[in-house]
Amino acid sequence: MESFPGVEGIRWGAAEAGIRKRGGLDLGLVLCAEPAATAAIFTRSVSAAAPVLLSRQRLRRGRAAAILVNAGCANACTPEGREAAEATTAAIARATGAPEQLVLCASTGVIGAPLPVDRVLAAVPDLVADAAPEGLPRFAEAIRTTDTFAKLSFRPAGKAMVVGCAKGAGMIQPNMATMLGFLATDARVAPPLLRRLLRDTAHATFNAVTVDGDTSTNDSLFLLATGATGQPVEEGTPAYRALAKSLGEVATDLAKAIARDGEGATKRIAVRVDGARTEAEADRIARRIANSPLVKTAIHAADANWGRIVAAAGTAGVAFDPARLEVAIGPAVVVRGGVGTTLAAERAAAEHLAGDDVEIRVKLGRGQGSRTIWTCDLSADYVRINAEYRT
Amino acid sequence: MESFPGVEGIRWGAAEAGIRKRGGLDLGLVLCAEPAATAAIFTRSVSAAAPVLLSRQRLRRGRAAAILVNAGCANACTPEGREAAEATTAAIARATGAPEQLVLCASTGVIGAPLPVDRVLAAVPDLVADAAPEGLPRFAEAIRTTDTFAKLSFRPAGKAMVVGCAKGAGMIQPNMATMLGFLATDARVAPPLLRRLLRDTAHATFNAVTVDGDTSTNDSLFLLATGATGQPVEEGTPAYRALAKSLGEVATDLAKAIARDGEGATKRIAVRVDGARTEAEADRIARRIANSPLVKTAIHAADANWGRIVAAAGTAGVAFDPARLEVAIGPAVVVRGGVGTTLAAERAAAEHLAGDDVEIRVKLGRGQGSRTIWTCDLSADYVRINAEYRT
Which of residues 142-181 of B touch A (CB under 8 A)? Predict the structure, then answer.
């Protein structure tokens, strides 16, 4: 971890505030030397948590000076949530000199429990003192909930650097049903272009991870650009393409790590749909398959039960012609022209499923629309972890 | 079982054809003395199975003389499915004298395996010989797959009788992912009115059962009216209302039994949403909650984790005002005005969840739309049953 690169102009901190029962780091801080161009994508839930509402509001001008993050409490669905978000970000502003209106926040943890503001305030001095350019691994540690490993990635982009970290999402994170992601670069990008860059990056990465199609009350993804490398990055230039490429790779690393680290998961699954009329159509079918508990349990058992894939695809609300349907599991085409191929293919498919990186490909033969969605298998451990979560 | 009532003009038969490995009854027959007015609702999957396609076509005139049903093989996604459905229904026509074009069929079982036509043909004489007016319990037995009990119900409707049976559906019936339902009455109803009656009945009953929102390749629901009681039933009359009421009650019994009998399920869950703008809006939210693995695992553990209910409701695509949201678990209102109420309420909710009949009520406060959806909890047994299904 010592060698994990930093991004000029950002320090990362972590501290233990005692918010979660099991102890350990549970507070994180992103601290900019100067307010950085910042873009964010938040949950579309109508029950968005207080930190989401506050951050959305404060980000109107496209700049942020700091982001305070806590694990162990979602700060959602309580009467005092707004006040708690304001009080804790105000403390960060006081301790760091950052303009209060540019301090954002994010929370992950139990919904409905009040944020223990006093504990957060008490830990702020430690948190700020801890902040360091090379602190990202500790920060990534602090935002973990039931993740079994911290998710980190980096890529150089020409003269700039891109770093990122994330914690798990969706059904794979029960009560802590939150995906949090932080991307940062020292490239200089104007806020409107940064927003587009983040939207495009998220579409093919974080937004392609699903287990139950659910969005939590707290999902937040941030991209900060400090501009320390000087030269502004303009659209259509080689520097822009290099930055977009590196951002995409970092985000892909993190999204795949989230899919791989589902609770009780033993396999990562990529569902790719080709030949749809539109990308949106491909997306619907890929998600339907990726969210089917029957498909996920069959894959868990390495059972090449393609009937479940066909059944899921057939009810995604897309009127494809079943006589043109092709389904492959790994290298083995198990359905062609809508009907099963050979026992040999089924055997080859079962072999592929015995591994821990599974690929399902579906071809519809009605257009050029494609989409890949990542998910994980469904095991009895998942149910055990979630059923016992608060007991 | 001896006292289960019949419907004048229909005989029910069952036989063992050896289609499924574990043995036992796997062939069923509905045999009408005269072609009966018949309505049906079939799967909306684009990959509908051969028996669905054939029955849909033969039912154009709204009458049926017989329905051949098999368990153990879905007769779906194979090149020879159509031929198999035609050959087996032709055999029923020959053996009974029913017009071949009025013999329908339904199948449930593994997708992608060819129907063993020879075995079915060999069992036809036994099947026809077995048909008897009081044979419905044996018929219900024959169409079971992983159902742990046969699902039967009856209600008198004035001078007429309504009987019905069904087998389980959706995610709760893995490879055998099929809901089959058979309703019959000796009332006399013209085919167009019968179709409307079935559609209205199914909407509030079978179509309100979900576990994963999936529709199989084989789902079929039939309603036969032999007319043996003579007097035609006209819309708006007391006889019509009595028939609609009894049909609704029989269908409700069967739908609830399906929800209760999910694989690995230990509890039945009713999710009722009130105060939506429209019924469709209420339906979306109720289904989102009913299909959430997080909600289902929490209920399995009798954990009054209302945050999961709020999170699911918030992402159903309905822009309700979270400040007006109310959630009750059994008798206990756990969320009011979008925030948690009291620990005492949470304790009362947990007590309710310890029972095996769970009620979740959500109020949105934006209109008069209501909908109740039935489902079941999600246990580690479910995963075990489904993962080990073909191994």
Answer: 171, 174-175, 177
